[in-house]
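Below is a filled-in request sheet from our internal design queue. Each sheet records the structural input a requester submitted and the sequence that came back. We keep these sheets so that new team members can see what a complete request looks like end to end.

REQUESTER: design group, bay 2
PRIORITY: normal
MODE: inverse folding
CHAIN LENGTH: 465
BACKBONE (tokenized):
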């Protein structure tokens, strides 16, 4: 049976302009894709930002519990999402090669893989009380954090399926439905936070746990909205359903390609999570101040993360088309946009830490600590942009293993141990832990940039599963 191609050919005028001014055309194409993808990334992060801001005005303990519960949730979900990022090279390269059948096989196997990953991830969230009680966290924090993690469990399935559909639409340059779905999710999360956190409209006040329920419902709303609005562009990939989409060998190949990405994401998130756990050992104020700073840094990070996703698509299209020079232009354009933006945010974090900290808390101790950590976050902005954009470029080229190794060395081999020494032996406290993160990001960013240069030096083979 014939299927519609997932990406229409460029109009002749646009193709002629690209041939005449290839660098300008690539930068324009990168920005055109990166802008809506970045908006969607910011929207996803905004749900956590709103949760933190609304819970933070309850108490420092409530903010710390939200931080710890979020760390526990993403410690597992980050791996599953990373595995599904294997769809980036497979689908984008298939689109570049005009191979609609390969797109359909990849997407359907992605759905199967998402459902398979959701089961162990949800089960891993159930023992949160037992795990968090043994991590040395404050007694006023960990029970609420455990309840938060458990309340987040029903949101795992929509989170992973949303990832599959989003990566598919991005690979086709179809991003409008993604943006609208995230708008719906954020509006639902904001309104339900008001109801569940503070006990409005006759509902009990659930506090921090209420924000977890709000986000879970918002994730189901995002999935439903994306499936409905994106269906015209998803239909050819999802219907008819291929019998071999369930084949363990084929799904296993996709999982093996994505496993290093999942490991890299889990290890990087785990590094920040380990710092969060260590902050809990330094007290509730330290944990809350860390969460406010990390939340802010994570929000700025969404922009290069969106550029990274766009880079994976643009590089993947070029690789699928067998156009190595275009792949190198796409990589250069992505680095210019992503790293340039983070250089600007670095200045903002360095010059206005206290007003930014005041967005999250009124507690004097938490405010002072966050204001001392935000400038350190400003220092690592450029390195953070460099490492994540390079990851997207490498993913689009099908290189998923080497970046995971760089992550292990940068964060776990050097950054975390040195940060722990600075915090506990050198008396640096919370600031010492954050300087360790700066070191880990600097090493990872520079190594990943070197890997990009090596990978794109010559022709790049297409990835198939």
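RETURNED SEQUENCE:
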């Amino acid at each position: 049976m014939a299927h519609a191609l997932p990406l229409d050919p460029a109009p002749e005028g646009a193709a002629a302009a690209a041939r005449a001014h290839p660098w300008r055309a690539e930068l324009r194409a990168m920005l055109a894709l990166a802008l809506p993808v970045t908006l969607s990334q910011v929207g996803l992060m905004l749900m956590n930002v709103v949760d933190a801001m609304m819970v933070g005005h309850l108490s420092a303990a409530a903010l710390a519990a939200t931080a710890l519960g979020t760390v526990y949730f993403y410690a597992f979900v980050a791996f599953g999402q990373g595995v599904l990022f294997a769809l980036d090279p497979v689908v984008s390269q298939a689109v570049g090669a005009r191979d609609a059948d390969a797109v359909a096989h990849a997407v359907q196997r992605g759905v199967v893989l998402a459902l398979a990953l959701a089961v162990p991830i949800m089960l891993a969230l159930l023992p949160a009380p037992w795990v968090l009680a043994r991590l040395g966290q404050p007694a006023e924090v960990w029970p609420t954090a455990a309840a938060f993690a458990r309340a987040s469990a029903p949101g795992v399935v929509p989170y992973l399926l949303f990832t599959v559909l989003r990566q598919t639409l991005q690979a086709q340059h179809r991003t409008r439905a993604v943006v609208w779905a995230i708008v719906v999710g954020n509006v639902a999360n904001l309104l339900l936070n008001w109801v569940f956190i503070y006990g409005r409209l006759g509902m009990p006040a659930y506090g921090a746990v209420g924000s977890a329920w709000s986000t879970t419902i918002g994730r189901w709303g995002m999935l439903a909205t994306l499936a409905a609005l994106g269906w015209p562009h998803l239909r050819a990939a999802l219907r008819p359903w291929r019998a071999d989409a369930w084949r363990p060998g084929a799904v296993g190949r996709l999982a093996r390609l994505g496993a290093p990405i999942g490991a890299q994401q889990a290890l990087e998130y785990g590094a920040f999570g380990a710092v969060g756990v260590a902050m809990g050992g330094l007290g509730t104020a330290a944990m809350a101040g860390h969460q406010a700073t990390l939340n802010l840094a994570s929000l700025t990070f969404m922009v290069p993360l969106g550029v990274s996703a766009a880079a994976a698509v643009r590089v993947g299209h070029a690789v699928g088309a067998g156009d190595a020079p275009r792949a190198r232009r796409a990589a250069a354009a992505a680095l210019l946009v992503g790293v340039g933006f983070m250089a600007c945010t670095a200045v903002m974090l360095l010059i206005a830490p206290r007003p930014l900290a005041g967005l999250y808390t009124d507690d004097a101790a938490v405010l002072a600590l966050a204001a001392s950590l935000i400038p350190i976050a400003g220092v690592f902005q450029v390195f953070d942009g460099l490492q994540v954009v390079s990851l997207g470029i490498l993913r689009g080229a099908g290189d998923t293993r080497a970046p995971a190794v760089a992550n292990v060395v940068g964060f776990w081999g050097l950054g975390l141990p040195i940060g722990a020494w600075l915090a506990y032996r050198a008396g640096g406290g919370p600031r010492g832990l954050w300087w360790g993160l700066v070191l880990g990001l600097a090493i990872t960013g520079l190594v990943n940039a070197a890997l990009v240069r090596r990978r794109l030096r010559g022709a790049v083979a297409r990835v198939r599963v």
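SHEET NOTES:
- The chain has one domain: 24-455.
- The radius of gyration is 22 Å.
FILED BY: M.R.
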